[in-house]
Amino acid sequence: MNACAQPFRIKICGLSTPQTLAAALDAGADMIGLVFHPRSPRFVTLDKAAELAALARGRAAIVALLVDPDRTRMDEILERVRPDWLQLHGGETPAQVAAIRTAACLPVMKAVGISEPGDIAAIAPYRAVADLILLDAKPPRDAAYPGGHGRSFDWRILAGLDPALRFMLSGGLDPANVGAAIREVGPAGVDVSTGVESAPGVKDSEKITAFVAAARAAAEMTV
Asked: What is the pTM of this model?
């Protein structure tokens, strides 16, 4: 498929209140992320996630972020939240990603942690089983959860990527640097969480609006 026909996606992850969800939707975010990892400060219960998903449905793609999910938990989320995408942010193997994608009958985004050039090799096995790759900064070694730490990585590492690879970029993005990231890296989309917060897990509506505007402007310039 012609890459030019594919939309540029802006994802706001870790939303947990109707007010900040409304800010993301009103700003024009393409995807909203709901985090189901209990150790994350952005964790939402099934009841809260279902409430937020109902508000977002039809306005943005609903993404359920899971970390090494078991089948029972995944089925609960699928039934109650009815997401449009699953984001796998744990140590899922390519075979597990394929199995989850088949079981859920949904497109899957697989996160791959990047911190050094050698990490690029980890992408290849997922290309055939994931609908989209998310390149994120590797978390600290002692981290309690795998993403949303506000860390960036050296974008120059991505210079050797296959130009045909469609991926979303994450890790340390914020309203001030997302434009430069898009121009330098040329991703198919960007994903932000910490960069639009006033405190861990507390989204800032003004930052969300500024992030979406900056990302959209940069993406339009690179078309």
From this structure: 0.91
